[in-house]
Structures are given as C-alpha cells and as structure tokens.
Automatic annotation (TrEMBL):
<comment type="pathway">
    <text>Hormone biosynthesis.</text>
</comment>
<comment type="pathway">
    <text>Plant hormone biosynthesis; brassinosteroid biosynthesis.</text>
</comment>
<keyword id="KW-0503">Monooxygenase</keyword>
<keyword id="KW-0560">Oxidoreductase</keyword>
<dbReference type="Pfam" id="PF00067">
    <property type="entry name" value="p450"/>
</dbReference>
<protein>
    <recommendedName>
        <fullName>Cytochrome P450 90A1</fullName>
    </recommendedName>
</protein>
<dbReference type="InterPro" id="IPR036396">
    <property type="entry name" value="Cyt_P450_sf"/>
</dbReference>
<keyword id="KW-0479">Metal-binding</keyword>
<keyword id="KW-0812">Transmembrane</keyword>
<dbReference type="InterPro" id="IPR017972">
    <property type="entry name" value="Cyt_P450_CS"/>
</dbReference>
<comment type="similarity">
    <text>Belongs to the cytochrome P450 family.</text>
</comment>
<keyword id="KW-0408">Iron</keyword>
<keyword id="KW-0349">Heme</keyword>
<dbReference type="InterPro" id="IPR002401">
    <property type="entry name" value="Cyt_P450_E_grp-I"/>
</dbReference>
<keyword id="KW-1133">Transmembrane helix</keyword>
<keyword id="KW-0472">Membrane</keyword>
<dbReference type="InterPro" id="IPR001128">
    <property type="entry name" value="Cyt_P450"/>
</dbReference>
Length: 356
C-alpha cells in the first residue's frame, strides 16, 4: 500500500497529472458554494472528491456524493465502542461499510472486465488491477480503496479548516498569505489554472501549513514495536514492546519550539527569536512508514488556501466573541462572510451572506 500510494502521490505525478484536477475541483467547489456553508463540511467534500478522482478517475457527481454520505457513517463508527447490540452508530457504520464495499466492488468488477478487453486507465485502480507486480483479488482492492479514502479524507480536510481558523485569529498572517496569493493571481487571468511553479512559490503558505500541522497535531502519534532491546537516555525498552511515539508531546514542547502553544507561522522562516528544528517535527510520521500522501496533502491544502484567499477578503472584525468576518471580494458582489467560532467541533465554521 505504501509503495503504491507513493507511486501515485509523488511530486512528479502531482505536477504532471494531479495538479490540474486539484485546481479545477477546488475551484468548482468554491464557485458552487451557496450563501451559507460549513467550512469543515465543504473541506471534507473537496478532499473526498479529490481522492475519488485520484483513485478511480471519477468526476464529482451523484455517485461520489452518495458514496461520501455512506462513508461519513463508516467514519462515525470508528469512534464508538464496537458493541453492535448496544450501539446504533456502530451498527449503522457496519451497514454503511458493507454498502461502500458493494459500490466499490461493482466499479472494480467493471474495470476488470474492461481491462480484459484491453481498456487501460492510468489511475490507482488501473494499477491495482493490471500494472502492479502483485495480483490482488477484488476484495483486497476494495479494502485498499477504503483505507486510502480514510487516510486522506479527515486529515487533509481538518488541516484545511484549522489553517483558516488559525489565520482568522492571526490577521497579520492572513494578510501575508493573501498578499502571496494575490501576487500569483495578478500574473494570471481569473480562470487560469495554477501551475507547479505557482505552488512552489507559495513559501509563506508552506509556513502556515507547517505551523497548523504542528499546533493541531491531528495525528497525535504513532505506534511502533521494538525489534530489539532499545536503550534511550538510560532506559531500556525491551524487544517486542509496543511504543507510542507522541508527536504532540514533542511539537508542543517549549524546549523545541519557543512559545510552543502560539500559532506563529513565521517561526518557519527562521525569524530571529523563533526556534524550531526539523528533527523534532514529524506531523507525517517518519522512517519507512512516513505518510506517502504528505506532498499531495500539502498541494491540496495550498491550492485550497489560494482560492479561498483570492476570492474572499477580510473586511471587518466581529465584536461578538472576537469573530472574524470576511467578504467574498471577487465572485459575489454582495459578499459571503466567514465566521470562526471557538473550535472546529460540531461544525465550528460558518459562511453566510453579509448584509450590505
Ligand atoms: C494533512 C494530511 C495528512 C497527515 C497529517 C497524515 C499523517 C500521517 C501519519 C502521521 C501517518 C503514519 C506515519 C508513520 O507511521 O510514521 C500516515 C500514514 C499514511 N498516510 Fe497520511 N497523512 C495525511 C494525508 C494523507 C493523504 C492525502 C494520503 C493519501 C494519498 C495519505 C496516505 C497515508 C497512508 C497510505 C499511510 C500508511 C503508510 C504506511 O503505514 O506504510 N495520508 N499519515
């Protein structure tokens, strides 16, 4: 799974194949936003559609939206006690998982038939069916697709949402980010697609993403098993022990990051007075299991921030609880506003039309 994901989510594939779809699908989504949307929901919709495109080459439509609805139920089941008799959520999740698997199985079977007739598609499913060294059964392929949908869906969309939350709470950073993206946009026509060189020039955006990942710690750590006795700072962890490597503990440690609990994207620009070291920064894990989707996630978040920053602009600060209100500068004259509530739990963000 690691190798296959890596081979479909590395820089050259993103640059040559995926970037154009990422840009197009994000733009389509933002353009279709109604007067009032929940940012977290929209971000999830975007990442789901991008993953479906990458895995199966399907453009968004009724099929992908129905699949996503079932998927949401499956994910809800992850956070319940697995007791079918007592938990409705768990029962519903199992049923939804079956439906998701049925839907994906149909697609896999159709593709396999097509492959046997000589039809080829250069997406992940195409590789799993034909070009990959190993032969997989339909069931294994469905498991793989389900796992990849989980891996990129919640993670990337949560970071998109949290980046907006932190930016709206840090107006200077929002202004700098906006400037960076407007500089890119000003050289292009309104509808012109972003290119790899544009992504590469988003240096402050990378600082914002780094800092969002560091503060948010959406994956708080990883488990590892010791293959041999390991000595660390005078302690011995015996062979075969399970160890939890806590990213959160390190990312929020003042010894490694000055004012570790403060969102400070400039620390990544080596501004004097801020400190951090790459050795202590592992939001995507590390070693042979390093997240194979790390570059894809960064590109998706960057392009999302690009379109958000160039289509919406801050206009006033709401006195009510320090909320930030933004209006949609370019696309809708009447404006659309964003409200950032205190957290992301329970749909913490709302966009709504501004009354002029
Ligand atoms: C902000 C977004 C993301 C974050 C923070 C994240 C983080 C992580 C972390 C911490 C791990 C465990 C690494 C380890 O054990 O050392 C992981 C594994 C993984 N991630 Fe991501 N990830 C993100 C997005 C994605 C995306 C978009 C994809 C799909 C293209 C993806 C696919 C995977 C896969 C397949 C694994 C399992 C790798 C293995 O066990 O060999 N991730 N991710």
């Amino acid at each position: 799974m690691h190798a296959l994901t890596m081979s479909f989510a590395n820089s050259s594939i993103i640059k040559d194949q995926l970037l154009v779809d990422i840009d197009r699908l994000i733009r389509l989504n933002l353009d279709s936003w109604p007067d009032r949307v929940f940012l977290m929901e929209e971000a999830k919709k975007i990442t789901f559609e991008l993953t479906v495109k990458q895995l199966l080459s399907f453009d968004p439509g009724e099929w992908s939206e129905n699949l996503r609805k079932q998927y949401v139920l499956v994910i809800e089941g992850f956070f319940t006690i697995p007791l079918p008799l007592f938990s409705t959520t768990y029962r519903r999740a199992i049923k939804a998982r079956r439906k998701v698997a049925e839907e994906l199985s149909k697609i896999v079977s159709e593709r396999r038939e097509g492959y046997e007739r000589g039809e080829r598609k250069s997406d992940m499913l195409g590789a799993l069916i034909g070009e990959w060294d190993e032969q997989f059964s339909n069931e294994e392929i469905v498991d793989f697709l389900v796992a990849l949908l989980v891996a990129g869906y919640e993670t990337t969309s949560t970071i998109m949402t949290l980046a907006v939350k932190f930016l709206t709470q840090t107006p200077l950073a929002l202004a700098q980010l906006k400037e960076e993206h407007e500089e890119i946009r000003v050289k292009k026509s309104k509808s012109e697609a972003l290119e790899w060189s544009d992504y590469k020039s988003m240096t402050f955006t990378q600082c914002v993403i780094n800092e969002t990942l560091r503060v948010a710690n959406i994956i708080s750590g990883v488990f590892r098993r010791t293959m041999t006795d390991v000595n660390i700072k005078g302690y011995t962890i015996p062979k075969d022990w399970k160890v939890f490597a806590s990213f959160r503990a390190v990312h929020l440690d003042h010894d490694h990051f000055k004012d570790a609990r403060t969102f400070n994207p400039w620390r990544w620009q080596n501004i004097p007075g801020t400190s951090c070291s790459g050795n202590f920064y592992t939001p995507f894990g590390g070693g042979p299991r390093l997240c194979p989707g790390y570059e894809l996630a960064r590109v998706e978040i960057s392009i999302f921030l690009h379109h958000l920053a160039t289509q919406f602009s801050p206009c006033e600060e709401n006195a009510d609880g320090g909320l930030m209100v933004l209006d949609r500068g370019m696309l809708i004259n009447t404006g659309v506003a964003i409200i950032c509530l205190s957290g992301i739990e329970g749909r913490g963000y709302e966009y709504f039309p501004q009354e002029n």
